[in-house]
Recover the amino acids of this structure.
């Protein structure tokens, strides 16, 4: 198989381990979907946070939780104050308590497996 015939695969994978920096903010989209937005601070970088959006009904995340976030980096655009604004964030597919090592390992390996080309 040449490079020209290989299928296009997603190459956007974010894995972050850190602490929830402040209480998550819940928002409801017009369609009724619940979105939790929160920031993750990683060890060794106390002033730097990564914004995360989680589109799940059953999520229970609290300030100070030590978590692993698996998802994709996305830049979204929206209208604010009469102009267009943007925000870059990690849209999480999974958020797992870092103390649940087997679950975190499975989540990361599932994400990595999604990057690999299908077996021929």
């Amino acid at each position: 198989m040449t490079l020209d015939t290989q299928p296009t695969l997603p190459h956007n994978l974010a894995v972050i381990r850190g602490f929830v920096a402040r209480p998550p903010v819940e928002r409801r989209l017009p369609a009724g979907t619940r979105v939790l937005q929160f920031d993750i601070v990683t060890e060794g970088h106390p002033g730097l946070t990564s914004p995360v959006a989680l589109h799940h009904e059953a999520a229970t995340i609290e300030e100070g939780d030590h978590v692993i976030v698996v998802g994709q980096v996305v830049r979204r655009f929206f209208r604010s104050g009469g102009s267009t604004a943007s925000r870059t964030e990690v849209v999480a597919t999974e958020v797992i308590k870092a103390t649940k090592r087997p679950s975190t390992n499975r989540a990361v390996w599932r994400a990595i497996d999604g990057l690999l080309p299908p077996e021929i």
